[in-house]
User: What shape does this take?
Amino acid sequence: MSPFPNLRRFTLRSKIREEKGSAALEFVALALPLFIPIFIYLQQFGALSSGEEIARILARESVRAFVASDNDLQAHAIAEKVVRVGESKLGFAPDQIGKSELRISCRSLPCISPSNLVTATVTISGVSSGRRVSASAQEYVSAWQ
Assistant: This one.
């Protein structure tokens, strides 16, 4: 006879049969590992979205600087400089600055002529996700140019 009659005997088998706390254990053991791929996907999606946003900003700002220039030669130099300065301001690593590609296309030549449509396309290789992202922006040269 036990000196403590109200004390139940602890056994592993009795603890396994007990349902108390099993929902939390099931959640941790089964559901939590399913969230890991979701977290990885969201991180990759965020990195790719960030790269696309940076490309859009650089394209938009470079085409604005291009159409505000006085002549084609100056316009190309200024647009290129806008991209390089933008890369450093938007958080590119020092070894990645200068690796973006800027392409300028115009409806007619010379580009800096009244009401001419100018398109700037910026392509960035592997900013944070290892993929190439590209964005374009269009702007008209002033009709009063």
Observations:
- Helices lie at 12-17, 22-67, 72-89.
- The chain has one domain: 20-140.
